[in-house]
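Justification of resources, computational component.

The compute hours requested in this renewal are based largely on the per-chain cost of generating structure records like the one below. Each record pairs the submitted sequence with a full structure-token output. That output is archived, and it is also reused by downstream analysis tasks.
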Amino acid sequence: MKYFSWNRYLTYRNCPLRYKNIYILRKERTVSQDDYHFLYGSVMHSLVESFYKNSLWEMRKECVNTLRSQAKSFYKNLLRESKVLWHKPHRKSQEELLEEILNDVPKITAAIKKYRLLSKLVFPEQNLRADLSGYKIGGRTDLILHRQEGLTLIDGKGSKNKSDDHREQVLFYALSYYLAYKKIPKFSGVWYFRETQIDWHAFKIEDLKRLSNLIITALKAIEQEKFEVTSKRDNCFWCEYKNTCSVHEDHLDTPYGKVIEAFL
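The structure output for this chain reads:
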């Protein structure tokens, strides 16, 4: 393991057995791959990265049109690399999902203007690596900006629903930045692409210490090979190994489980 990422930490926290299957045994999944729920967010992330790396704000009125053109290209390339079960109920078609993305492109520039996210020093898709009590942790955050308002770290989300895990993820990146550069970002935000909204968090050293302890506890448990199955209803429905897990079968055999399974 080169470094302990947010995804690794979240996976172990939610279900140690799933962590073992994915990262240690590299076990073949028992559920068909389905990337439907990642398409929207992947395209929007690529557009934000392109906006900053290619200085698209200099195009002014043509910026949105350029982003829409890029969105079509990103989407087309992504479909080639992805496996999507389009036949499932309650899903948009390929064309409908692309239309949604194109309609939401102006929300990117609107959020950038609303939250003053232009700066001479901007680092999109920035890798963070740090040492935590002898363990290597890190990941890739979507944006690091050095603004007049203060050092700003942002992670984008294409999901429709907010989650406490989104706050914890950006805290993970703030911790990584602090360990690497000895400075806590003044602003840490979760950018919800669908809403033109950024939820801001001003983390304190106590927040970083709390998460540090949780991460170290998880890493020590992995070293001790503690990989018990954890029953968390919503997490089980997304598991690659749910078809061979008795815990998931218990969740599925409920009215809630039947409804959720129909939407996935």
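The chain has a mean pLDDT of 91. The chain is about 50% helix and 15% strand.
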